[in-house]
Amino acid sequence: MISDLKVFLDEKYIQYNTPDFLQSDPIQVPHLFSKPMDIEIAGFLAATIAWGQRKTIINNALKMMELMDQSPFEFISGHQSKDLKRFSGFVHRTFNSDDLIWVISALKEIYNAHPSLSSLFQPKKDELNLKNGIERFRDAMLKTPHETRSQKHVSSPSKGSASKRLIMYLRWMVRQDPSGVDFGLWENISPSLLSCPLDVHSGNVARKLRLLQRKQNDWKAVEELDVQLRKLDPRDPAKYDYALFGLGVFEGF
């Protein structure tokens, strides 16, 4: 029964959507800041490297903030080429200093044209999710010269990617969270359009709960899961990320 499943997942959402979640999650990095632009940049950079061991992700995201003098928006909007030398040697798994320098340079160009990254993600009429917004953002990033290998760090739903890190970032920025974990900064985007970040843990739990039939964790699976989670809460479907993630990571469901 869908009503029984909703009760179960609502309980798990309440259990895991608490400030304690910040202690072991990369979202703690943007929580270091109070200015909206610093939050959205720190969040994007932390989400961009959010794969691998969570402790390593957090440490490397904190290192990026340190290299930007703890003022990410001021650094990105005002840096000159000579300032980028400080990133030499930075590496997180396959994300290296060349990738980071490209991302910083691309963000500067975007901010020269837009007041916020949210302008690119903002849905247009009749868009039922944020797929096209992700593609608009990716296209804007790729306008800045870069190595071909760097493109994989900004995923493309149109090419089949589940875009887990960007979807997670969008949850951080868009979702109105009474517990104060997600920021709800981008009020121009409705939380009803958010998707659930899909990875090994959330995907396996979703399949065990029969919320997801597709075997691959790709964009088609994201949209399939969207349909089911919106039945449970059409206004805030991404809240169930906490339930699926918590069941998978902390309970081995």
Question: What key attributes describe this structure?
Answer:
mainly alpha; two-stranded antiparallel sheet; 2 strands
Summarize the structure.
This protein has helices at 2-16, 36-48, 54-67, 72-78, 97-113, 118-121, 131-142, 164-174, 200-208, 219-232, 240-250, and strands spanning 91-92, 95-96. It has 253 residues and is mostly helical.
Explain how this protein is built.
The chain is mainly alpha-helical. 50% of the residues lie in helices and 2% in strands. The protein has one domain (2-250). A hairpin with a 2-residue loop joins β1 and β2. The protein is globular. The model has no long low-confidence stretch (mean pLDDT 96).
The topology string of helices and strands comes to HHHHEEHHHHHHH
**Number of separate strands:** 2
Question: Which percent range fits the helix content?
Answer: 40-55%
Q: Tell me about the largest β-sheet.
A: 2 strands, antiparallel
- Strand line-up in the sheet with most strands: 1-2
The mean pLDDT is: 96
Ranges where pLDDT stays below 50 over 5 or more residues in a row are none
User: What amount of the residues lies in strands?
Assistant: under 5%
Structural class: mainly alpha
Fold topology:
Elements: H1 2-16, H2 36-48, H3 54-67, H4 72-78, E1 91-92, E2 95-96, H5 97-113, H6 118-121, H7 131-142, H8 164-174, H9 200-208, H10 219-232, H11 240-250
Helix pairs in contact: 1-11, 2-8, 9-11
